[in-house]
Amino acid sequence: MSIHKMIALHPNVGDDFNEMLATAARHAMFCAEMCTSCADACVAEPMDMTQCIRSCLDCADICAATARLGVRRTGQNIEVLRLMLESCARVCDLCAEECARHEHGHCRLCAEMCRECASDCRTALPTVQ
C-alpha cells in the first residue's frame, strides 16, 4: 500500500501530483512512529533519559501533524503547510541531535530517521506553492 497512490487518486490532484511532498509526508509518518518507539525504549533505559524522551515525543507530534497536512489535497493552506514543513525539519534536526548524544541503538536509528525526514521536508518545501 502506498500513500503516493492514495494521493494520486484524489479527485483534486489530476496532473498536480507532488512527488516530493508525498515523500515528505510518508517519511514524516514513519518518523512519528520511530520517535514514539524511541521514547518508549528510552523509558526502559536505566539512566535518566528525560530530555531524549521529551525531544522524541515532541518530534513525533510535529511529524504526525505535518504528515496529515501533507496528504490533504482539498482546498489550499499553503502558508500553514510551508510552516509545518519548516518546523518539522527543524524539530527533526533537534531530535536527531539529542538522540545522537546516546549510544543506544534505538537512539541512533531514531536520529537517522529524523535526519532523513528533515531532508525530505526541506526538499519538498520549494515545491509547495
UniProtKB/TrEMBL annotation:
<dbReference type="Pfam" id="PF03860">
    <property type="entry name" value="Csp"/>
</dbReference>
<dbReference type="InterPro" id="IPR005560">
    <property type="entry name" value="Csp_YhjQ"/>
</dbReference>
<dbReference type="InterPro" id="IPR044543">
    <property type="entry name" value="YHJQ-like"/>
</dbReference>
<protein>
    <submittedName>
        <fullName>Ferredoxin</fullName>
    </submittedName>
</protein>
